[in-house]
Amino acid sequence: DEFAARDGRQRWVLGSMGPGTKLPTLGHAPYGVLRDAYQQNAEGLVAGGADALLVETTQDLLQTKASVLGARRALDALGLDLPVIVSVTVETTGTMLLGSEIGAALTALEPLGIDMIGLNCATGPAEMSEHLRFLARHSRVPLSCMPNAGLPVLGKDGAHYPLGASELADAQETFVREYGLSLVGGCCGTTP
What we know:
Layout: H1 2-7, E1 14-17, H2 31-47, E2 52-58, H3 61-78, E3 84-88, H4 102-109, E4 116-120, H5 125-138, E5 143-146, E6 153-155, E7 158-160, H6 165-179, E8 183-184
Parallel strand pairs: 1-2, 2-3, 3-4, 4-5, 5-8
Antiparallel strand pairs: 6-7
């Protein structure tokens, strides 16, 4: 609201529902417990003013389903219809951490009534291109992409991300043009 008041431009807040550390497929926590926790998370984000819910950096399809259904339960309980966006993480191996391909993610998540699907984290734009191409050909919902600023390079001072703002912007421009992305952003190593 403060930024909108300064220049009159409308802004939206995406309530981020990150991956957490409990993967139900690996038995870290029961599915129902996670779904209910994500519902509480979503209710708090909506109460705080979120305009949409962003389930992001997901690595386990069962975890992702728990978060989407938790978000939907929250919206139903509150009598609201806000967008639910899902951003999965595909590793350099070409699959999510637990082995699911992007096609499996789309097949599992689209029927849950998500409003947008995309990719974030783990890799830079170069490694996301083929997965975005698949989504562009097969998804019935809009697409998003929030890559890291390239693959991290480990040095004595920790991780460094090699892509600068102009390189990341060029990649996103290409993705918008070639794959019709509706939402772009950045993940690890990116700055305003």
